[in-house]
Amino acid sequence: MSDNLLDVSNLVMRFGGLLAVDGVNLQVKPRQIHSVIGPNGAGKTTVFNCISGFYTPTDGTIRYRGKAIHRMSGHRISLLGLVRTFQHVRLFASMTVIENLLVAQHRHLNTNYFAGLLKTPSYRRRQREAMDRAAHWLQQVDLLDFANREAGNLSYGQQRRLEIARCMVTEPGLLMLDEPAAGLNPRETAELDQLIMRLRDEQDIAVLLIEHDMGLVMGISDHITVINQGAPLADGPPDQIRANPAVIKAYLGES
Amino acid sequence: MHRAIFPALFAAGVTFLLTCLVVGIRLEQEGASLTVVGADAETWGWIAFAVIGVFLVQLLQQPLQRLRQRLPTADITGLLPNEMLLHRLKPWLIALVVSGLLVWPFMVSRGAVDLATLTLIYVMLGLGLNIVVGFAGLLDLGYVAFYAVGAYTYALLSEYYGLSFWMSLPLAGLLAAVFGCLLGFPVLRLRGDYLAIVTLGFGEIIRILLNNWTSLTGGPNGIGGIDKPSLFGLEFSRRASEGSQTFHEFFDIDYSSGHKVIFLYLVAVLLVLLTIYIINRIQRMPLGRAWEALREDEIACRSLGLNPTVIKLSAFTLGASFAGFAGCFFAARQGFISPESFTFIESAIILAIVVLGGMGSQMGVICAAIAMTILPELAREFQEYRMLMFGGVMVLMMLWRPQGLLPMKRPHLELKTS
Amino acid sequence: MTETSLYVLQQLINGLTIGSTYALIAIGYTMVYGIIGMINFAHGEVYMIGTYTAFITIIGLFTMGVSSLPVVLLLALMTAIIISSTYGYAIERVAYRPLRGGPRLIPLITAIGMSIFLQNYIRLAQGSRDLAMPALISGGIEFGDPDVFEVSLSWMQLIIWGVTLASMTALALFISRSRLGRACRACAQDLKMANLLGIDTNRIIALTFVIGAALAAIAGVMLGLYYGTINPYIGFMAGLKAFTAAVLGGIGSIPGAMLGGLILGITEAMTAAFFPSEYKDVVAFSLLVLILLFRPTGLLGKPEVEKV
Question: Hey, which chains touch C, using 3+ CB pairs under 8 Å?
Answer without folding.
Answer: A, B
